[in-house]
Amino acid sequence: MKMETQGHQCIFILGMHRSGTSCLAGIMQAAGVELGEVRRSSTHNPKGNRELPAVWRLNDAILAESGGSWKEPRRSLRWRLEHEHERDRILSGLGRHSIWGIKDPRLLFTLDFWTAGLSSYRVVAIFRHPVRVAKSLFAREALPQHQALALWSSYNQRLIDLYQRRPFPVVCFDAAAETLRRSCASLLVRLGLGDRVDAGVAFFEEHLRRHRDSHGAAETEEAMALYRRLLQLPALPVA
């Protein structure tokens, strides 16, 4: 049975690892979106990844059940009744709030599992240049560049596929600081959080946006073609 969300707003925050999802989630949380007891600091992110451990553990379990992992995501998912029970427990806890959200890069592949438990929801997303993501993944995971770029393509092709199925607001994390702030402010207004825009965008700190160099790495044509497609997506499509 789907959880009834009438009078409440659920938001899923999508995007590849190391692509600004933590920043966007933090902006939304500062503007009033309830995320639960998320991580607010970590070794590779001074402000934390803004993820619920229970969410990414469940997403990992779903990917593993489907024969994959976050490094080898699967589009065709399998899950068991116990996974549904854990999902519903998480959703029920967050769903007490008038506006709440979930952020985890794995959601790009597990979104259908989560939305199966909801009567309605909204989606927002963010993306970043593939080389910048590859450099950040190498710093965090020692992931080889060719593997990181292939993974970037897999995640962002999924983002485009989901967008084509049901358009949603998309933010470019590579934008100049002021442009990024304006994009996030427009997003907050779109979500009905116009009275908390200043508090939201104040979360963003330019000096924390690392790995800004997009040169010096082997780029795949597939990744760059996808990146150009992402840049062409309307930032705030008509709902």
Task: Explain what the structure shows.
The chain has 239 residues and is α/β, with parallel strands linked by helices. Helices cover 46% and strands 8% of the residues. It has helices at 21-30, 53-65, 81-94, 107-115, 130-141, 145-165, 177-190, 197-201, 221-232, and strands at residues 9-14, 99-103, 122-127, 170-172. α5 packs across α6 (145-165) and α6 (145-165) packs parallel to α9 (221-232). The protein is globular.
The tally of strands reads: 4
Q: Averaging pLDDT over every residue, what do you get?
A: 91
Q: Order of strands side by side in the largest beta sheet?
A: 2-1-3-4
Low-confidence stretches: none
Ends apart, CA distance between termini: 26 Å
Strand content: 5-15%
Please write the string of helix (H) and strand (E) elements: EHHHEHEHHEHHH
Assembly annotation: single chain
Radius of gyration: 17 Å
Shape: globular
Described by strand count, sense and barrel closure, the largest sheet is: 4 strands, parallel
Structural class: alpha/beta
Helix content range of the residues, please? 40-55%
Helix tally equals 9
List the helices and strands and how they pair.
Layout: E1 9-14, H1 21-30, H2 53-65, H3 81-94, E2 99-103, H4 107-115, E3 122-127, H5 130-141, H6 145-165, E4 170-172, H7 177-190, H8 197-201, H9 221-232
Parallel strand pairs: 1-2, 1-3, 3-4
